[in-house]
Amino acid sequence: MLSFMPQAKATRAGKVYGAPGDGYSGHISIITALVLIGLWFLVTESGWVKPLFLPSPVAVYHKFMVALTDGVANSTLWEHTRASLTRVFGAFFLACLTAIPIGIWMGVSRVARGLFDPIIEFYRPLPPLAYLPLVIIWLGIGEFPKIFLIYLAIFAPMAIAARAGVKSVSIEQIHAAYAMGGTQGQIIRHVILKAALPEIFTGMRIGIGVGWTTLVAAEMIAADRGLGFMVLNSAQFLDSAAVIMGIIVIGVFAFAFDLLVRYLERLLIPWKGKI
Amino acid sequence: MTAPMERLKIDKVSLTYPGLHSSEAVIALKGVDLTIESGEFVVALGASGCGKTTLLNLLAGFMSPTEGEITLGGKRIRGPGADRGVVFQKHALLPWLNVIDNTEFGLRLQHVPKAERHERAARNLALVGLQDFHRHMIYHLSGGMQQRVGVARALTCDPAMLLMDEPMAALDALTRESIQELLLKVWEHTHKMFFFITHSVEEALFLGSRLIVMSPRPGRITHMYDLDFNRRFLKEGNARAIKSSPDFIQMRETVLGIIYGDELAAAGTQEVVHA
Ligand SMILES: Nc1ncnc2c1ncn2[C@@H]1O[C@H](COP(=O)(O)OP(=O)(O)OP(=O)(O)O)[C@@H](O)[C@H]1O
Ligand SMILES: [Mg+2]
């Protein structure tokens, strides 16, 4: 009767049967990428789409080479990249130093939760572009307001993740530690912090992703350098090849860093999802 | 080592859960009196909701009684402490530590030097038959092995008393029987007080040197039996023969009768306090 229903396939020895979405998917992703690039070639080379709307991969590659050597929007690609990486990672670093401790503090302390919860929950859903003018009025147009804008966007998801991580520790683990003579400080350090690590890592991944999405907004603040600035500037001159090139460079960096965090996650939290 | 005068005294203890409204308050325990002598193996049986877990939480110090007091060795219990080890239904081990580090964890919290805590943990792991699994990760062990680590971990702090809340509820019948025998050997070897909650009448009769039967609404001790099936097992060593002996079966039927009576009477709603 139900034979038409999809069945879980028997997996290899030592693998878990029926775990949803189990298995290696990298090769499928590579095929997806190749097909998309193939389509891109097809529609541009055949002339179906005008180069202004979608320049060909070859044109984008040329723009890339030009950007590397002569530069686009007054700076070389390397200078743009360095400016943007400094901003995103500066903000990310600041957020790690502040959002994670505050999130943990919110998890373990009623007072801290009452203190920070309304602030975070209020500004979190606001688009950065909405408070961008305020940031400029308050902090001016230097390097710091750019980093600060990205930092604000990263802060909320990271703090919320750290707080959720604290809440995810099982009360039995805490009770067991108390029943072995642990003090509250020890239990926060040796049980709660460790149990929160998986969620903290997830928060870091989400946070850095949000950082990249806020980059363009941040570089609207009187920047003269940066990948976001390069994209905005090229758009004004209808240089769509440079726009696409900039988007791809941002995407590649974001993706590479995400892979790195995932790798660290597997290395540092091998127990994730096991218990 | 445990002083011979360690004695646990539960003196007219009541506990009422406040509930959201005063009309929803639940009297979980009312006027419970019980004295446990050093070296006793007390097993608590009773219909679901009769307050067994509540009583264990009071002994562990995770809650304080609404009325009455509990003393251990003459000292009033005011919170959890290393003199009372707890083994939970679900293991509550720390997945980021391996077997030996989990077992040592309590001593680490108490700042016991590395060499000593390793030696004590190894001794207790050997006692539960896990001497060859020191470096294994918790999530690579079977459920029965995880519970044995839980017992070894609690024993390593050398508590006066071991509290266990249905530690074998999630285990299969065979593993259960082997851990029952193991627990009796550990009990004989350590001569600590054991307080053990179970839903299995057979398990209760086999393990306990004293059986308390509790009734719900309000939770109280209604029957108490002295048993010696455990000593017979430790002397003769044939668990199946003991569990199928006529006096064991007769005892089992008596206790089952009491509990079924409670379950039937409990078909109504919960006892509530009308304030
Ligand atoms: N946190 C709580 N708040 C309010 N009522 C509670 C709470 N915990 C338990 N109770 C109530 O107290 C009574 C005793 O609960 P308890 O968990 O001690 O029973 P139990 O004997 O351990 O049951 P089981 O055999 O099902 O584990 C029950 O009626 C339960 O509904
Ligand atoms: Mg219970």
Could you characterize what this model shows?
The complex is a heterodimer of chains A (275) and B (275). By secondary structure, chain A is mainly alpha-helical. Chain A has two domains: 15-49; 53-268, MetI-like (MetI-like fold), CATH 1.10.3720. Chain A is 72% helix and 0% strand. In chain A, helix 3 (77-108) packs antiparallel against helix 8 (184-218) and helix 7 runs antiparallel to helix 8 (184-218). The longest helix of chain A is centred in the C-terminal third of the chain and has 35 residues, at 184-218. The model of chain A has no long low-confidence stretch (mean pLDDT 89). Chain B folds into two domains: 7-83 and 161-266, Rossmann fold; 91-158, no CATH class. Chain B contains nine helices and ten strands. Chain B has a six-stranded mixed β-sheet, sandwiched between helices. In chain B, strand 4 and strand 5 form a beta hairpin. Chain A binds chain B through residues 170, 172-173, 175-183, 186, 190-191, 194-195, 197, 269-271, 274-275, and chain B through 60-62, 79-82, 84-86, 88, 90, 92-96, 105-106, 108-110, 137-139, 153-154, 157, 163. The structure holds adenosine-5'-triphosphate and magnesium ion (MG). Adenosine-5'-triphosphate binds next to strand 2 and helix 1 of chain B.
Number of helices of chain A: 10
Number of domains of chain B: 2
- Spatial gap, N to C terminus of chain B: 48 Å
Helix content of chain A: over 70%
Mean pLDDT of chain B: 87
Give a count of the beta strands of chain A, DSSP E runs of length 2 or more. 0
Write the topology of this structure:
The complex is a heterodimer of chains A (275) and B (275).
Chain A lengths: L25 H20 L11 H13 L7 H32 L1 H14 L4 H12 L3 H25 L3 H8 L5 H35 L8 H10 L3 H29 L7
Helix pairs in contact in A: 2-10, 3-4, 3-6, 3-8, 3-9, 5-6, 6-8, 7-8, 8-9, 8-10, 9-10
Chain B lengths: L6 E11 L8 E12 L3 E6 L5 H9 L6 E6 L2 E2 L7 E4 L11 H11 L4 H14 L15 H14 L4 E5 L7 H18 L2 E5 L3 H7 L2 E6 L4 E7 L2 H8 L2 H5 L2 H20 L10
Parallel strand pairs in B: 3-8, 3-9, 6-7, 7-8
Antiparallel strand pairs in B: 1-2, 1-4, 4-5, 9-10
Helix pairs in contact in B: 2-3, 2-4, 3-4, 6-9
Magnesium ion (MG) binds next to helix 1 of chain B.
